[in-house]
Specification:
By secondary structure, this protein is mainly beta. It has one helix and eleven strands; from the N terminus they run αβββββββββββ.
Length: 184
């Protein structure tokens, strides 16, 4: 009886960690075709530096380097903030990046909820976008929401789904910037 009780307690204590680890598929890529090298995550941040506790395994030193190979950093943090007012007059905000709190947007645990890379001339079937054709030389596409695993005290989600696109080109004059588009 004591042994089964110990096994039950052990499983009971372990379950929250197993369940939590299944809630999201974290991924990142580096735009690297033009003069700008940029870190991009599939949870809406353009960096991964929250209090030295990264969500990804990116060990690069720079989040946004221009020109590529120069070791010149041009961004400390980057992400979107979306706010709204409820019918009751409450002001709510969900952010992908702030210095004071962890991200409030995350992808799901689905294996396809990753960061998709589509190159010039390619067409791919993304579960939320069939027959997606590349816009630039290197497109990154991902999807995340503010209601998936957010565990921030007092955060009230807006229940937003975001599809993020970023576009990078390899030839002048378009190789000097990256365009970001957000469908909310």
């Amino acid at each position: 009886m004591k042994r089964s009780f110990k096994i039950f307690i052990s499983l009971f204590l372990l379950i929250p960690f197993l369940v939590y680890s299944q809630f999201t598929t974290i991924d990142y890529k580096i735009h690297n075709v033009g003069k700008v090298r940029q870190f991009v995550s599939n949870f809406g941040t353009l960096d991964d530096s929250f209090e030295n506790q990264p969500y990804t395994r990116y060990r690069g030193l720079l989040w946004c380097e221009m020109p590529a190979g120069s070791n010149e950093e041009h961004m400390y943090q980057g992400g979107i903030w979306i706010g709204g007012i409820t019918p009751n007059g409450d002001t709510l905000v969900s952010v992908t990046r702030t210095h004071f709190t962890p991200p409030e947007f995350f992808p799901t645990a689905e294996p396809w909820d990753t960061l998709w890379v589509v190159k010039k001339g390619d067409t791919v079937d993304i579960p939320y976008w069939n027959n997606y054709g590349a816009v630039s030389d290197q497109d990154f596409i991902c999807r995340y929401s503010d209601y998936n695993i957010t565990n921030i005290e007092n955060h009230v989600p807006l229940f937003l789904d975001v599809i993020q696109y970023s576009y990078a080109w390899s030839s002048a004059p378009l190789d000097e910037f990256i365009i970001y588009n957000y469908d909310v």
